[in-house]
Amino acid sequence: MRPVAALAIGALALAGLTACDATGATGATTSSSLTAEQAAALLDSDFYDTSLVHSITIDFDDDDYQAMLDAYSETGDKGWISATVTIDGTVFEQVGLRLKGNSSLRGIGSDSTADTDDDGADTGAPAAPDSGDGSVNTDDPETLPWLIRLDKYVTDQSYQDRTEFIVRGNTSESSLNEAVALELIGLSGLATEKSAAVRLSVNGGDDALRLVMESIDDDAWNDDAFEAGGSTYKADSGGDYSYRGDDPAEYTDVFDQKTGDDDLTPLIDFLDFINNSDDATFAADLGDHLDVDSFATYLAMQDLTANTDDIDGPGNNSYLRYDSETGLMTVVAWDANLSFGGMNGGMGGGFGGDGGDRGAPPDGATAPDGEAPDGAAPDGAAPDGGPGGGDNILATRFLADSTFSALVDTATTTLTASLYDSGDAQDVLDRWTALLTDQASDLVPEDTLQEESDTIAAYLTAAE
């Protein structure tokens, strides 16, 4: 780790310190709304300690910011700028900062139909017609989704062994839905990303409550999540799981390799099998290509968390992890901010085995704004998996096979008992709700927090 300095407790809480800023900004300031007690607790704490609301401040040159927005508006490219970032009182300079996401950036720029992969390259495809991840306002950069990369310009710069931090977009004010969903995914035994509730301030502006999470693109996350070596591939939102031949160049617009040796061969072989094997071969040999038990658990958890934006949702939201020792692929869960019905303005969700009644909120839950009544899909939306979704070849073939679909049913029954009937899921929700009520009610009103918590609780009850 190569931080510039650790700030003194009193200054962190009360005054805020400035630091030399290579971007030309006036200086790094700490959150003005932290109490001395909160600031003291944050110093030297684990950033993903969920008993605390953490603090991140970002400072950058306004001209750099505007140039970045102009470039995104004109081309869809997500360019990097340099910033000073303070994490729980530790200052880092020359940090890479760029916009993060696709649907979460709707409304920025004049061309909202162009689709880009998450590295900013134009895929040439229309953007997936989903509902977005909440409102964004470029005049209030603390509302935007961001990727913070500590080692973009300074080699080996990291914080607690992590080089990347993702500031998530969400349709709710609290982001409780994604925080709870991520933790439940981890309790199911699947690899998941840790998250932290954060007070985020940009260029001395007001604090906003945001959810910040680990990045699957981070080598350190992969090392912690998977025992064996291998490669991690991200499905781009403008692509699909189709087989496009054996030329790696044909996959550059649909998958990005994030970790491991630069080799798409395992991915291409896997896509060849799931697309081109006949049904008998698929049933007999899928276990030689995919961790089928893990995938059954994945599908069960996406349904149990009512996530309409999963592998068969509008953007193929998933990663594939190739284990070089076993030769198996694992589908890694990603993008849970539309879990539990997407909360306010989301796309709806529910429980129904293989993604059945995802359009209707459970009894007692409030339907998100703009949702079609009585569980009907919104205009133009597929009834399963959200608009443009419901047609991932792997999920479709897996669920069409009686043996594999039975694994999903078994996983759903087991996880319902262990997470929901046991009360563990409610305990997770209660803990997150109490945290935000106790430490962030100045950022989100208590009645809003309680309303959003109650909406999730209705989904948890419906799953029992």
UniProtKB/TrEMBL annotation:
Checking Pfam families in the record gives: CotH (PF08757)
- Which stretches of sequence are listed as region Disordered? 108-142, 349-392
Q: Which InterPro entries match?
A: Spore_coat_CotH_CotH2/3/7
Keyword Signal listed? The answer is yes
Signal sequence bounds? 1-24
Low complexity bias: start-end ranges: 122-135, 359-382
What superkingdom heads the lineage? Bacteria
Q: What keywords were assigned to this record?
A: Signal
The protein here is known as: Spore coat protein CotH
